[in-house]
Amino acid sequence: MNREIAVSEALDLLDDVGLENVSTRRLAKRLGVEQPSLYYHFKTKKDLLAAMAEAAMAPHAHAALPEPGDDWRSWFLDNSRSFRRTLLLRRDGARLHAGSTPTGDLDRIRRKMTFLMASGVPERHAQMAMLAAGRFTVGCVLEEQADADAPDLPDNVPALDHEAAFEAGLALILGGLEQHTAAPDTAH
Fold first, then answer.
1. What gap in Å lies between CA 31 and CA 102, rounded to an integer?
2. Looking at residues 12-33, what average pLDDT do you find?
3. How many domains does the chain have?
4. pLDDT tens digits, 26-68
5. Residue 184 located in a structural domain
6. Whether residue 39 sits in one domain with residue 108
7. Statement to judge: residues 142 and 51 lie in one domain
8. CATH number of domain containing 78
């Protein structure tokens, strides 16, 4: 057993039993090892969850970064959609991600911010828009994943189209950001 295998098995365990039932005891049993052997790789369950969150975010973390000349609006939407798709890949993906610190992603975040500012988005607005879009996305996925586990709605209650609701909210965030953004050739 190595760290990568343990994290991969922990993510499979997450998909099987849900976040509230992931434990080092269950993971050790799944791996066929004694529970204390996990502490060689993860000092605490929090360390295990952080490693799981980082691994679960890999599809989004490896998505293409924006290039100079890309349309910032399209990129902003695509970046949020990529984040949503990645959170939805795992059962309780949003709960796993919530509260995690993107320590391995700081250079990518800086590059994204630099791109937005070079596109004419004021720094503070770029920061707040990225934060708002990220938290909005996590919240949407939290609700979507909770609804997947909820009992069926009565016939007189319409089902929520989660993707349409996400897109509508994302458009509102982008619209607000556009109001505070000048074209790059007019920004000073």
1. 27
2. 96
3. 2
4. 999 999 999 999 999 999 999 999 999 999 999 999 999 999 9
5. no
6. no
7. no
8. 1.10.357.10
What's the pLDDT at 186? 45
Does residue 122 share a domain with residue 32? no
Domain enclosing residue 34, as ranges: 3-56
Token duo for residue 116: 């937005």
The predicted model gives 141-158 an average pLDDT of: 83
